[in-house]
Here is the input.
Amino acid sequence: MTSISKISAPVDALHGDIGNVASGDVLVMLSKSGETNELTTLLPYANAKGAFVIACTDNEKSTLAVKSDMHVYLPSDGEVTPFPDDDELGNNAHTEQSTHTETMQNNQKINAKGPPVTYTALQLLFGDTCAVYLMELKGLTQNQYALNHPAGRIGKRLVLKVSDVMKDWKELPLARPEMNGMEALVQMAGTSKGCGCLLVVDDSRKLLGTFSDADLRRALTKDGELVLKKTVSQLMNFEKEYPRTTTSSAMAFDAHLTMEHGNTVEYLPVVSEDGAKTLVGLVTMRGLAECGM
Here is the structure.
C-alpha cells in the first residue's frame, strides 16, 4: 500500500489547494495556539471535503483542539526569544544602568509569550517521529526507502550498480601484450586520460592485466631504459598480483569498497561473469565521485 503526503500553506488551501484533499484523507493542522485564523477558517471546508482532521497544538481548549476530529497535545515550556515578557518591559523602564547587563541576559531566557521559534522545531521533531513510526508500521525496508530517495547517499549505495557507473570497454585505452614499452608509453599519454591505465587484452578481449603509471615507475626503477624495449606483457602488473576486478551486476558501493581495500586503487576493471574474464568496462574513483558515491 502506497501513501502519498502533500504539504500546503493554509492560504493556498483556501485559494484552491484544498482541491487536493479527498474524502477519507488525513489532514494534519499544526498550530501552537490552536487559534491561527487561516487554519480555523479552513477547518469547516476540510470537514466538508470529508477529511479526517488532526490538530496538533499547545492549547487543549483552542478552536482547533475542540473542533477537529482528533487533537494531539504537544506541550511547550516556552520560547527562546530576545524579546522580554510584558512584565519585564515595565520593570526595565525603571531599571538603572547598572542592571542593564542582567536585563539583557534575562531577555534571552525562555519566554512564554514570544513567537513560536522553539515550538516549530518541536513540531518538526513530532513530524519526524510520526514518519519513522509509519515507516516501521508499513514495514518499509531500506531498499524501498532507497528507491524513493535515489539522490541521497543511501539511495546511491543501495540502488546503483557497476553497470550504471562504469565506462564501456569501447571507450577504454586497450593494449596488446606484444606491444613494446615505447608504444605503450605513447598510447598511455594519448588515450588513458581519465582511466589511469592501459588495459591489456588478447584477441578475445580477455583481460590479461593493466599497465599504469605506477607499473612504469617500478619498471624504470628496476630496469631503467631497458623498459622501452620490453613488451607490455612483461611490464603489466609489474611486481604485483593480477588486478582487482568486479562485474557489471555488482553494486557500485561494493566496487568502491573493493577499490579502497588495502592499498587504494584509482580504477577497477569490470569483467564478464562467466569466468572468461572478458573485459566489459572500467570503474574509476573519479567516476564514482561524479555519481556522488
